[in-house]
Amino acid sequence: MAKVQIIGAPFSTYVRVCRIVAEEKVIDYDLVAVAPHTPAVDAVHPLGKIPVMRHGDLELFESRAIVGYLDRVFPGPRMIPEDPVAAAKVEEWVSLVNTALDDVLIRKYAVLYLFAKDGGPDRARIDAILPKVEKALGLIAAAVAENGYLVGDGFTYADANIAPILHYLAKLPESGAMIEASGALKAAMAAHAARPSVAKTVP
Ligand SMILES: N[C@@H](CCC(=O)N[C@@H](CS)C(=O)NCC(=O)O)C(=O)O
């Protein structure tokens, strides 16, 4: 069988999601570490975004499609459960994160620190987004409060999809303090960070 290529920079949260899933399923894959809008990416993703994937003749773009393919085609633990209700609950969280929480936590908050200009992070924009950051982290903390997982009683795509985002947030002052103050979220993050799939893919 051809070897899977996951194509995209290791710092990308969505690239890391695909790698965590591949590691959980013990898939022998190559990481092709390239930035968005570079030829290897543009050849597959219509908007030049990462990750993209190659497997033999198959080309895929969008992390959701890549994860779904890897999960179905390869053996190993199901990251999207077979049970329809559990699968729908995983999809709920993936969709919520990909359409709303990622936008607040990474694109509108974390980037203010990660891509700050010479004058330092934009304080006014940080302060403006903080209530939404607090709400988003509160939702996640409430969901993991029972047993440390977003869905059911094990590590699924829902957890893999959010771990790379939380990794960055733990390092930033305001979100880091919120995580520190939230016993449940902090404990869940520590447990997930100790998984070989998560530890091996730290950017
Ligand atoms: N919906 C896409 C989002 C991918 C995405 O936004 N990737 C970022 C890096 S984390 C990117 O390529 N950004 C460059 C751009 O948006 O032009 C997926 O799930 O794969």
* Strand tally: 4
The CATH class assignment of the largest domain is: Mainly Alpha
Q: What name does CATH use for the topology of the largest domain?
A: Glutathione S-transferase Yfyf (Class Pi), Chain A, domain 2
Which regions contain 5 or more consecutive residues with pLDDT less than 50?
none
**Number of helical regions:** 9
Mass-distribution shape: globular
The average pLDDT score comes to: 97
Bin the helical content: 55-70%
Secondary-structure element pattern, one letter each: EHEHEEHHHHHHH
Tell me the span between the first and last alpha carbons: 28 Å
Radius of gyration based on Cα positions: 17 Å
Structural class: alpha+beta
Bound molecules: glutathione
Short characterization:
With about 200 residues, the protein is α+β, with helices and mostly antiparallel strands.
List the main descriptive attributes of the protein structure presented here:
alpha+beta, Glutaredoxin, Glutathione S-transferase Yfyf (Class Pi), Chain A, domain 2, 4-stranded mixed beta sheet, 9 helices, 8% strand, globular, binds glutathione
